[in-house]
Amino acid sequence: MPRTIQKAPGKIILFGEHAVVYGQPAIAVPIPQRYATATIEPIIRGDEPTRIIAPDIQMDIPIDDLPYEHPFVQITKLVKDLGKLHHLPAMKIHIHSTIPVSSGLGSGAAVSVALARALCTFLGIEHTNADISAMAYEAEKYHHGNPSGIDNTVIAYSRGIFYQREQPIKWITIGRPIDLLIVNSGEQKSTRIMVNQVAEKVAVNPEYYNQIILNVGSLVIQAKKILESGDIETLGKLMLKNHQYLQELHVSTSTLDQLVMLAMNAGAFGAKLSGAGGGGNMIILADHEQIPDIEHMIHQAGFSNTIHATIQ
Ligand code: PMV
Question: Is there an atom of ligand 1 within 6 Å of 100 CB?
């Protein structure tokens, strides 16, 4: 069994986070500038156990020492089931990621996708993108209890998606390339906490919050059409409106709001938080030529962790 290397991209949610947990559609795209890698090599000496080596999270241990519900253990078990294998050979599994953790770029799902694909390839197990996505979904449950499935789907297929729970995946078509500046607010967040926080609000005042969730759903349907038509100015307005809805769901922070305001004052078409909120990343939509100036200004304001991504 030769050494195998598999990569999976990060992702960004363009529209519809949180509402997607409640069955509304959302739009997400892969961000190949940041990625996770899983490398697997055989262990020749038969008495050595399978080891997971993930220096980014200071991990170098036999896989059997991890708790049963850990994503690495879950993925390994699911791959074994898919291949109908009774026994796995001893392997050295190296995990590495350039995706910042807990920032809304899908680091957990990307590691799961890279690992699932590397294991299947290494073990010679036939697999589809749907298999890989389903395995990463199970692992996502460890990161937060009720994942919508958008992260594992966009990353496993590595394509822009219009995603809705329990519905066939639709691909998005981008009428004209769009330039995004992804800005890390520097605040780490927990998707689990943010999703639970919204669930508590919905439980206390369902009428009010369900209406916001429905409004986000309609906005996402509109955004899909606008993405196809290439009307970037309108797309920017929709982003800003989506940010307002996320504020109403209480998932924004003063730093994220400040970044949105900075972007708008600098002449961006639109901006919003992206992902679970409570920190993490936000995105700015602007003209290609304008991005370097906006990026410079954002750096001056103290936010040095940015990615310029052209989505096409
Ligand atoms: O983990 P994040 O920051 O990419 O957020 C995921 C998006 C949510 O809609 C908040 C949760 C989900 O499972 O869709």
Answer: no
Q: Are 136 and 155 in contact (CB under 8 A)?
A: yes
| % of the chain with per-residue pLDDT over 70 | 100
Q: How far is the CA of 104 from the centre of ligand 1 (A)?
A: 7
Please name the amino acid found at residue 79.
V
Distance in Å, CA 17 to ligand 1 centroid: 6
3-state class (DSSP) for residue 288: helix
For helices 107-123 and 129-143, the axis angle rounded to 10 degrees is: 140
Cβ of 104 closer than 6 Å to ligand 1, yes or no, is yes
191 Cβ inside 6 Å of ligand 1: yes
The residues, any chain, with a CB within 8 Å of residue 116's CB and separated by 6 or more, are: 75, 78, 79, 127, 131, 132, 135, 136
End-to-end CA distance of the chain: 37
Q: What is the pLDDT of residues 251-293, one digit of tens each?
A: 999 999 999 999 999 999 999 999 999 999 999 999 999 999 9
Q: Is the pTM of this model over 0.90?
A: yes
Report the nearest atom of ligand 1 relative to the CA of 11: 4
User: CA–CA separation, 10 vs 27, rounded Å?
Assistant: 14
Sign of CA dihedral 40, 132, 136, 271: positive
Residues 6+ apart with CB under 8 A from 164: 20, 23, 24, 25, 26
Provide the β-strand partners of residue 284.
181, 271
- Residue 6 burial (CB count, 10 A): 20
Q: How far apart are CA 179 and CA 153, in angstroms?
A: 23
